[in-house]
Amino acid sequence: MSRTIDLDVAPVRARRRRRSIVDWYRSGGLTAVLFAVPVVLIFLYFSWGPVVRGVLMSVEKTNLIGPALWVGLNNFTYVLTDPGLPQAALNTAYYALLGLVFGFPVPILIAVFVNELRRYGWMYNLLAYLPAVVPPVAGILLWKFFYDPSSGGIFNGILGWFGLGPLPWLNSEAMAMPSLVLYTTWAGAGATAIIYLAAIGGISPELYEAAEIDGAGIWSRLWHVTIPQLRNVIFIMMLLQLIGTFQLFTEPFLFTGGGPNNATQTIMLKIYNYAFVNGDYGAATALSVLLALFLCVLSVVYHFITKRWSPS
Amino acid sequence: MKKRAAKIAVLIASISTLAVLTACSGPGSAGNAGQGKADPNAKVTITVGDEPTADKKADRATFLQHVQEFEKAYPNITVKPSTEYWQAQTFQAKLAGGTLPDTMNVSLTYSRQLIDNGQLPNMTPYLKQIGLLDDLNPLALKNVQDSKGDVYTIPYGLFSVGIAYNRKIFQEAGLDPDKPPATWDEVREYAKTIHDKVPDVAGYAQLTTNNTGGWMLTTMTYSLGGSITDKSGKKASMGRQTRQALQLLHDMRWNDDSMGSQFLYNQDDIRKAFAAGQIGMVLQAPDVYDQATHLYGMNPDDFGEGALPQGNGQHGTLTGGTIAMFNAKATPNQLLAAAKWVKYMNFQQYFDKDLAVENAKSSVASNTAVGTPSLPPVKDSVYQRYLGWIKDEINVPLDHFAGYTSSKLPLIPEPADAQGTYAALDPVVQKVLTDRNADITQLLDQASSTIDRNLAQQR
Q: What is the CA radius of gyration of chain B?
């Protein structure tokens, strides 16, 4: 069936194509391609080149000086049988969970709060955004002081006024990860709140007016108008946050070095240690490839789940 | 159907283009194929690292002057200085990328790993050619040789780990500041005394993060007569002594409460806390003196350094320091010229009195320590002569280092795959200090199997 159709259509298509190639050439198509080629090649080389090189390295043993040795899936076996991997994976998932439960609602609440203010909204906006301006390294060094486990530490001093503490903060396996989440929420909430604020600005005021006429208070307006209207932005931000949390590195690297007793050891920190402590690039790239695959799968699954929730 | 086939074709084409592109960037073969056949008179250009940055005016001027003098002495060599210096975070990437200078200074702790990974050129022929090999400190050479005795880097600026202590805190606690602890029993006793008598001060503090936890556990194990990896470098060999070290830390932390409340210390943080008078005793090499006094404002009178405390008899201590490393991709002529440069920069002062005095004077002028006790990079006889030349310029209170300098502890090299091994031991130390019920034997078993895995993967 399809063959007959093909036969019928083929000569027409060929004619059309020939004509269009001439047209294309005359209208400067070749010049456009010549201009585009270097850009595309540079993009492929610098953006995708490292990705492909990374995938190749994951099946090699190399010190990047001598010739590389093909080792097949050895690097994958090595990283998958690493006794520290399950804990690093669990820590990463735990961080993602804590981030979602405690960190994720904060910027939404800030955005709603700032939006509700009739006066001085800009000031609260600025205050919320300020932490995002502090470079992460400086912020972390500052918070290291806050987290000082002695009774003279800033947080412990404040707790002391209420007769609480002193808490060990980063020095305890149980508290180290929540402490990191507290910091990242502080550091990241402002920037995310700005995005929510912009999205809230796009919500039609009529909806609020209608809700107010129906006698809705601030909470039911939030629940029945703001959040449903922000749904798509929330889904995207949640996906971005999930991917971000799975790539957690700077905070454990600078705060705890993965300690105490691996309580803040994450997948990214493991990758870093494989490459830059052990000099084992094969293992580092193997774990990176696995993480990338996992994030791809996560994104696809997330897409299908949230598609079902979307209004369309 | 056809559309799909076309798509697949495009995909395959792009992937193969990528593969071709990236193949061009694959690692080249080591450039020093004709190793050892260097012509001392050939015209050659070398890049050298560690040029002081523009904010350190005096140091930079001195450095550039050395470059000029060196080029005058060796007219066939052109030196291109670079401000590249060793940074743990970027070092491996730059080494792999081949962007490091022909020679630069690196921490000694990387020596074994770089040799085992084949990332360094064999320097033996060039060092022989310039006559430096025989004058190097034989104790230090052990750290930079492979099993065949070939030398790969030049070790200098060496030290061994001792115990740094705060003399003022010792006095406040009623301890004799001229008598640092010589045994681990004394360390425990002194730490308890400090904890009882001086408020808000940790009697003794321990490094625990960024591989320093394993580093110091290794040092403690050595001081108790044990080892971390076996002689062949293929297996972990921790035993009773490592358990004893951990038990001691556990008891000081949980029974005596003499270790303060901070248990996540990296090198910088612990040095700051020590300089700020928050720590009574800490395992440190004497090079902490310069940083503590000049950078962090510790009063030089408060600083004291003793030999590494020992247990179960006299055993030894761990060495550390700096090595001049060379680029594996440099040509033989460049390697020879780079070796001459390293000799000129770091060793000439041991053979040239005027230069020795001039260097010392310039250090005093820029307010850096002169005469900090360390392991000499050269033979003892050469070193003593050098100390005689600069004795008027020494600005370090040498009597505060008496406990360290009077000791004759044997020097023990680092374990196999030093950084990887230390990394495996960090969590053990952290666990013991943050969990009262830590099972030391089980923790060491786990760490041993991690170390064995790492060592097997290295081969």
A: 25
Q: Which of A137, A261, A264, A265 to mutate to test the interface with B (most CBs of B within 10 A)?
A: A261
Closest to A230 in 3D by CA, of A200, A252, A205, A191: A200
Q: Does residue A63 belong to any structural domain of this protein?
A: no
- Min distance B393 CA to chain A CA atoms (Å): 38
Question: Burial, B172: exposed, middle or buried (Cβ in 10 Å; 0-12, 13-18, 19+)?
Answer: middle
Contact residues, B window 417-446, toward A, CB-based 8 Å cutoff: 417, 419-420, 423, 426-428, 430-431, 433-435, 446
With tokens 């490839």, the residue in question is: A289
The domain limits of chain B are 44-159+321-389, 160-319+407-458
Tens digit of each residue's pLDDT (9 = 90 or more) over B155-205: 887 888 999 999 999 999 999 999 999 999 999 999 999 999 999 899 999
The yes/no answer on whether domain B44-159+321-389 falls in CATH 3.40.640.10 is: no
Contact between B209 and A283 using a beta-carbon 8 Å cutoff? no
Q: What is the ipTM of this complex?
A: 0.72
Please name the member of B1, B21, B262 whose beta carbon is closest to the beta carbon of A171: B262
Tens digits of residue pLDDT in B254-282: 999 999 999 999 888 999 999 999 999 99
Pick the CATH number of B160-319+407-458 from 3.40.190.10, 3.40.50.20, 3.40.50.300, 3.40.50.2300: 3.40.190.10
Asked whether residue A243 is domain-assigned, the answer is yes
Residue A119 lies in a domain: yes
Whole-model pTM: value is 0.79
What is the C-alpha to C-alpha distance for residues B126 and B133, in angstroms, rounded to an integer?
A: 9
